[in-house]
Structures
1.
Amino acid sequence: MEKIIVANLKMNLTFDEIKKYKNEIEKQEMRNFILAPSTLYLSYLKSDKYELCSQNGYYVDSGAFTGETSFKQLKDIVNYSLIGHSERRNNFNESYEIVSKKIDSCIENKIIPILCVGENEIEKKDNLQYDKVSKEIISALKNKKIDKIIIAYEPIWAMGTGNIPKYEDIENMCNYIKNIVKKYTKNYKIIYGGSVNSKNIIDICKVNGIDGVLIGGASNDPKNIIDMYNTVKKYVK
Ligand code: 13P
């Protein structure tokens, strides 16, 4: 099965840089490539060469919520949305309850959620990674009719550090996630995020059960992301 590559540009790139980015990635067909830029650039980046993902969204459809963009507004532009990214949970106090409401709104608006889960450094030290991940998934999905979902396992301690878990630990977590998520839907994928780069992307994509990757920092340069994309297409079947 072909791997999925999601590029989370976070709060990076100016409009000039985005224009160059679009120009580069539109030079080839980017099947199963999902781009998550700042909300500001989503309309501009609409393309038939790749798919779009929002980095966030608000769960109320419309109203007096200055500064927010609802999933209802996003649905004509994106197919996916990141939900519960650790940067939102930690920097913007996104609670389990808010994450759950966002999943509801995605379902309602037919946006495929990319639910981000993963343990921090302390939880890892205390061997609580499985408890954390199950809590994050169950609280987000319980009592819901999920059509399709992507779970992104992103250990917080690995993000932006250059460190990644042992491949067997990724595989074990992947199996663990699979056993939880399959109770909610048969239509799921599991991807890995956290310091994915051109050196480790192949090995990560070859881990049993991993359907793709979520890339942060290494996706900011369009040439780099195209290289990683082409390498995966070539070496991982
Ligand atoms: P890095 O790839 O920069 O570690 O970021 C991972 C991430 O947060 C993707 O959502």
2.
Amino acid sequence: MEELAPRAKSLIERGINPSLTVLLVGDDPASQVYVKNKVKACQRLGIRSTVARLPSGTPEPELLGKIDQLNADPTVHAVLVQLPLPKGYDEGRVVRRVDPAKDVDVFHPVNAGKLLLGDPGLEPCTPKGIIALLDGIGCAIAGKHAVVVGRSNIVGKPIALMLLRRHATVTVCHSRTPDLAAVTRQADILVAAVGRAGLITGDMVKPGAVVIDVGVNRVEGSKKLYGDVDFDSASRVAGAITPVPGGVGPMTIAMLMMNTLEAAEACST
Ligand code: GUN
């Protein structure tokens, strides 16, 4: 992530102070930790960060009004609504209120549409981090069979598109896929993003495959975080594998920083 420091510095030297505002509604303990990590990353790079905290009973129109205010503020380049929102909010409506130019999560349909079409624009943080990890270990993507387990808007769908753009053959699996293991065993690159602790076991991994574990699962009665991949068995078969915690999580934060800098750079041109 430190490679981003010169980009932040160069903006600051030009009189632009890159800035991210995180909207945090309620007091979900996991969200508090995630937000704290985002703030710390900003501090390391000289990005101005603000956490706008709203109590969980805040009426939705008030939350939307706050987003409008941040959209109109030229000193704020990036706006992120921390998910999940407490019960009672229309999450889709809320995240769509963020100005697409400040939408560093890439949740707005305009940005999602650009991603689908391959137009230039911001790319969602976790998938962008996965591609950076693959490139970082010199894993060629073109021509490989990539299997994505999970079809969420936040990871599964966008990573499938981004791997496709890099010329992988992509299969997307989900909860209704019969014989999941038969599909995952074909994967040269296996991305697990379903939110089920230990779903992917070593017998489901092709020897030598690159395994990317996006899962962050909490299991009742344990303080540990569990990935979607059973690390012990899968690491004996895989050529490379990401751990949980570590691996994808820190890359996601680094890519959020990169998107914030990109949004600030776009404002200044
Ligand atoms: N909660 C968990 N992951 C994310 C994310 O990537 N973006 C937002 N906004 N909330 C999250």
